[in-house]
Amino acid sequence: MVTERSKAKLDPVAKRLLGACDSIAGDSPGGDTACSGSVRPGETRPGETRPAEASVDLPTDSQSANAIEWLERQHVRRAMIWRARSCTISSWLMVAVAAIVGSVIGVKLSMDVYQMASEMGLDDVYGHSGWRLFWIPGLMVVVSLVVVVGGIIGAFFGFFPGYRSTSSAIDWSTATDAVTRLLAVGCTYPEAYSTAAKVVQNRTSRTWLTETAMRVERGETVRGVSPYSRNDVAMLESLIDPTGENPTQQWQLASDHFYRVAKGRLTLLTQSMPFLSTVVAGFIIWFAISSSLGWFWVTVTRLIGGLT
């Protein structure tokens, strides 16, 4: 059983599930109206905002079990987000460190070659023009800046390849699971969408839920012409049938779908990202060393040839 003290520490969805929409059942006319609406359970008319099959008087034990199950799912999804984020950050750090080390190696070796050639009078090795020695290290420095700055910008806006799609699927799994559970306890569609919007992290899913809540309140359909209707949003809208007789079941199917997709994308990310970052980091180090050593060996060869 979830106590009133622990209830205050829960997220909005868990609080709503524990409340079980008492105002709908008429238990507290002046109490919590979070799930109240203009359409009562069992009514069916165009633009209705509550599924007819919703339960509004769940026993307290069922409310607690539902809330606990929701919190357990949230814990799993947070762990998935943490795995995706840590894998992405570690892979980016590997490439960034490789680019920085490659830049340092390239600049140091090029400076040594330039100094050696100047002291030995072998300026003709690089055509009496220092830029021929330093353009590759300069390119490495630019690559390092792009990797570091691009990684910071990507982390701020969530644009990392692989991570963005994975976090989107996890976020939609959270949203659809929340809507499913809230509709099952008798919440209106607008309140279910608005409450779900409070627990998602992705701006796209939050905006879609908020706009859909306002659209349903106006008596319009769940589907609408929106710039967000692509990728995961388009899949969600294809799974939700506005004219269906069992919307809660449709949302449950959507929740199961996005949970499977999230696990699949997370597996792909955690298995492919470390391998790709290792290959890229190794190539950067190899390119920096081999390109810089090329001039070094040319200079040494000319020096040995001059001595003989």
**Model regions low in confidence, pLDDT < 50 over at least 5 residues:** 21-47, 55-59
Mean pLDDT reading: 76
Total number of strands: 0
Choose one word for the global shape.
elongated
Helix content: over 70%
Taken in chain order, the helices and strands follow as: HHHHHHHHHH
- Terminal CA distance reads 91 Å
Strand content: under 5%
How many helical stretches?
10
**How many structural domains does the protein architecture include?**
1
- SSE-based structural type: mainly alpha
Radius of gyration: 30 Å
| Largest sheet: number of strands, sense, barrel closure | none
Biased composition (Basic and acidic residues): 42-51
Keywords: Membrane, Transmembrane, Transmembrane helix
Region (Disordered): 25-58
Transmembrane segments: 87-111, 131-160, 275-298
